[in-house]
Amino acid sequence: MPFDLNLNLILGQMVLGLVNGVFYAILSLGLAIIFGLLGVINFAHGVFFMLGAFLAYMLGATLGIGYWGSLLIAPVLVGLIGIVVEVLLIRRLYKIDHLYGLLLTLGLALAIEGLIRIVFGQQGVPYPIPPSLRGAVDIGFMLLPLYRVWVVVAGIVLCLATWFVIERTPLGAKLRAATDNPAMVQAFGINVPVMLTLTYAAGVALAGVGGVMAAPVMTIDPAMGTNIVIVVFAVVVIGGMGSIFGSIVTGLGLGLLEGLAKATFPSASSTVIFVAMVIILVLRPRGLFGKMA
Predict the structure, then answer these.
(1) pTM, entire model
(2) Among 105, 138, 237, 272, who pairs with 261 as Cys (CB 3.0-4.6 Å)?
(3) 35 in helix, strand or coil?
């Protein structure tokens, strides 16, 4: 029987779907920042997510740094890698067609993923849930692991804080001005290339944060970024390319939709997001929150 209308099952799957939705929102937020402010379709974003998880694992295995330390250090390291990538590669693509950025970052993603496979092999590696976040919370219709509660709360706070910085602070205004009219901003003494480099670094560091947060609930393997980035691109398209707020709302909403599909029609759960993308693109080509060109 394809349909299951058990209310507790539906609510439980939607809550678990919200956890996935938080990861979708964090990753799509970074993608939206990079595309919206730099105009680069960063297909390597999933690899930075994967690097965040692997760096957390390596910090623990080699230096004994636990989850909380890794949550601070690994995204910084991912951001530093992003600085190198932007300076050496991405910077050369700003004034040419977006397709070249997509092709370059796709090649970069394949190269980094291949390197990780050589170092760590095909099999995944485990990452323990931190002791302070073990256990579960009774929410009436299910026992929800405490770590997943942390993921939802911390992820939503991170997304909203990022939106606030970009849309409601002088720094965010300078970033938007630097991409719209770099010559004018440069005339005010602001180093535009450095600002764009830091913007790219911040975008991929968000993916690194997501990777560390995902490490205890997903298998850390070289393909984990590739597996999620396709869905994340669909989230960005549905929300509107470059829309910061759209990425957050759509990521969370599609996570809930995916959870609902798993409970009611499991065979459609892997495609429901892409069906939604097709429908939205037909009805509203610029996405739910995208601006008119």
Answers:
(1) 0.91
(2) 272
(3) helix
